[in-house]
Amino acid sequence: MQSASEQSEEAERPAPPAPPEHAYPDHWEADVVLRDGGTARIRPITADDADRLVSFYEQVSDESKYYRFFAPYPRLSAKDVHRFTHHDFVDRVGLAATVGGEFIATVRYDRIDARGMPASAPADEAEVAFLVQDAHQGRGVASALLEHIAAVARERDIRRFAAEVLPANNKMIKVFTDAGYTQKRSFEDGSVRLHLDLEPTDRSLAVQRAREQRAEARSVQRLLTPRSVAVVGTGRAPGGVGRTVLRNLIETGFTGRVYAVNAALTDGPAELDGVPAHPSVGAIGEPVDLAIVAVPAERVPQVVADCGEHGVRGLVVLSAGYAESGPAGRDRQRELVRQARSYGMRIIGPNAFGIINTADDVRLNASLAPQMPAAGRIGLFAQSGAIGIALLAGLHRHGAGLSSFISAGNRADVSGNDFLQHWYDDPGTDVVLLYLESIGNPRKFTRLARRTAAVKPVVVVKGARHSGSAPPGHRVPVTRIPHATVSALLRQAGVIRVDTVTELVDAGLLLAAQPLPAGPRVAILGNSESLGLLTYDACLTEGLRPLRPLDLTTAAEPADFRDALAAALADETSDAVVVTAIPWVGENGATEFGDGEVLAAALREAVASAPAPKPVVVVHVEMGGLAEALAVATSTRPAPTGRAAAPGSRPATRRTDQAATPPGPYTVTPGPLAPDTQTPALAPDTQTPGALAPGSPAPEGPQTAAPTAPAVPATIPAYPAAERAVRALAEAVRYGQWRRQAAEPGRVPEYEDIDEGGAAALIEHALGGADDAGTDARGVTLDTGQAGELLARYGIDVLPTLPAPTPDDAVAAAARLGYPVALKTTAPHLRHRPDLGGVRLDLASEEQLRTAYAELTEVLGKPEELLPVVQAMVPRGVDTVVRSAIDPAVGAVLSFGLSGAASELLGDTAHRLVPATDRDVAELVRSLRTAPLLFGWRGSAPVDTPALEELLLRVSRLVDDHPEVVAVSLEPVVVAPRGLSVLGATVRLAPPPPRTDLGPRSLPSY
Q1: d(Cα 957, Cα 748) in Å, to the nearest integer?
Q2: Which of 233, 403, 488, 990 could form a disulfide with 428 if both were Cys (CB 3.0 to 4.6 A apart)?
Q3: Cα(541)–Cα(836) distance, rounded to whole angstroms?
Q4: Per-residue pLDDT, 236
Q5: What global pTM score does this model have?
Q6: Measured between alpha carbons, how far is residue 485 from residues 277, 332, 497, 871, 893 in Å?
Q7: What is the largest CA-CA distance in the chain?
Q8: 232: closest CA among 306, 130, 298?
Q9: Whole-angstrom Cα distance, residue 56 to residue 131?
Q10: What are residue 731's phi and psi, to 5 degrees?
Q11: Under 8 Å between Cβ of 923 and 985
Q12: Is 471 exposed, middle or buried (CB count within 10 Å of its CB: 0-12, 13-18, 19+)?
């Protein structure tokens, strides 16, 4: 739409030739999450939208119309409607944000020339204008539309937007100025003139991601904190899914309103389990925030429409029969998502188990879990209902409490990424546990996990690792990289990656209960020498540095444990303590089981008197009395905050009724009990959730997460096996190390000799020639000369290789290169396999070269089969391999390993995401199991690791600067005590794959 001045000018402008209509760009359609957590659909405006546009405009206030047109403009003329609904999708584009199929906002651009007149390409500027319905202003609709119209403009080779805004229209000015684009601002003829460069900047990307985080976190918060819940599909008779969820909501004391919905209730007002029952959501007559859908799949569309038309904000779909059931179910699931999003609703499920929020002011158990978990500070997400049940039961047995629980089923809409956005700054959650069977957007997951791990631990167990495909019902991109590589990349992001559900619980208990260790030094004490040695061995296996175990002997009494633990906690030579305990033998030779409570009290006393927090874990064997004492209190219950919560946030205070949690045998609670309670009293040195306890590693970098409330003193997790306790402790040590290192993040060095522009020209020429030749669309592999030239632009020199199809050619090549030389085959079946005899080294004369040539061809085959080449000899060193490849799911990955069959068979290759920092490549080199070979193993000379790290950084820069470089392989790279030599290089180019993480915000498409 245009201002009044623009319209008057238009009459004087000569009409440009009408450009041809282009096909409808359906890839511009997107669902977005708005600032308040609701959703809207953004799509191009077409000629069929005339009636919608008129209806939309009628609902806009006169003030908004004035701001838009700079004059009173009560209605649109037929000419206006035609102009604003007919676009060529190149020079004139209009987008609309819709909810329920109706417009709530529009944006359009018109390409203009330097004089501001209508134009076509190559003009690269466009005028842009917005109009947002008053009822939807403040929801972030205009900001989302700006992101999408800017992406469309860049696709159409438009580089700048111009906008004219009245000075009083502060909201619209703020939309432009807050977007983060490079801009110029001027005041002309009573209006503000803005010019925006549309090239994404670091600031615009940061603004976009911050808005994404707030919106997605808010959408989850709306699901977890409803004021009213309707259970749709509640049967008349007890039993069944709907009736079970209704009972769970009531029995756990949900603080909001609860309604039952049963389509068969047509005889007027009714009740089920003491709550009002209605035939439909619309018949309730009151606002409903959340609907739990438990009807057969074929009836769900009717329920979704009923909910959408009556303002329901979110759905938890328990119904099965969707993508997990086959092709027809997948189609049904797609339509479910489309339908729900069209009404601005988000979905958990389908095929979900439900959601739980233990906050005292909510107490929501909208799930099939028969018992409400104890309130605590662990956030738990599970894609599988069965695994979710197992995790709830395991944490319950161990006395651990939860802040929230979600079992997402097929996670057609809301996923683990959304809950990471929520838990990142949730003051009630200190530890995040995730059971994932698939990762829908690995690139985004890694980014979110890294940010969340900077303020609180994120522990992940990945199911379906070896099936070769996603579980039924999960729509995810295919990844070519192996599971071990994905694990390495998650660890790079600070994720604590475990292999089993048991390890997930073990790690979660320790991280929720204890401060992070300051290092890998572990003190071991106990009354069993054998159990102490087992613990010692387990520490070495996990890469920890155990001190010599302190054997208190089987005659040790609880006071001896107390004194030994107090000494270990005060000892600055240890960073953590493992206490081992077995039943002790009485004077008459009988095994004593009844003193476990006394031992628990002794351990509490020692921890309470520690000068600084230090993690403590207990390994116990058949200590029945101790197991009973461990159930004194819920391990992760928070203390009262003593301050008001931030506006809009969930209060951190949580339910502490012990009736909700039967005694669990695996948690010792240090500190004395408060009078007349069964919960521990608070100590002055309480730990701050989401941060490190005093004396433990400092959190890294500037953080924006909201501060969280203090918790009760750390509890002591106990394990029935040394290996389990030490493995959990080792994960905490590695995570603490990652936090410390991330406090000083690495940098991507700048190299003055890099010729980025020259490399871009070479790539463009190579891809252009490939297109002209009709080469495979997957790309082109550069020949040896082209690869060397491209790499040289980034300061990577490849040793010259000369072909030797005959002995005389080999001799001529050696003469050019200078003796001594190497003769080797390049046939695919022999390439990089020196163990098969295809390489001859240190050939110092023509005679030796001819002899070696004859031997190769006699033993391995004809020259035309072997493809022999000659290279100059280089200083001896360690043969390594440097590679980079772009995976469609995770992006560019940098890999490093030692050359040879042994390393390949062992899978001893390390990986990091691109762009890699200097810290990343230093860790990359040292993370190999065979890394000692680089650092002087068994008396050999250490190699030049700084030169190796620089090579890795240069390869990372090349791939990051030029996404058309989809694969690089440098093999072998001989790293000598001084310098290195790249003996072979392969480079493959292809059109760059789309970067979904750099585009405008949008939900996964269906």
Answers
A1: 8
A2: 403
A3: 35
A4: 87
A5: 0.81
A6: 52, 34, 12, 33, 9
A7: 112
A8: 306
A9: 10
A10: -65, -40
A11: no
A12: middle
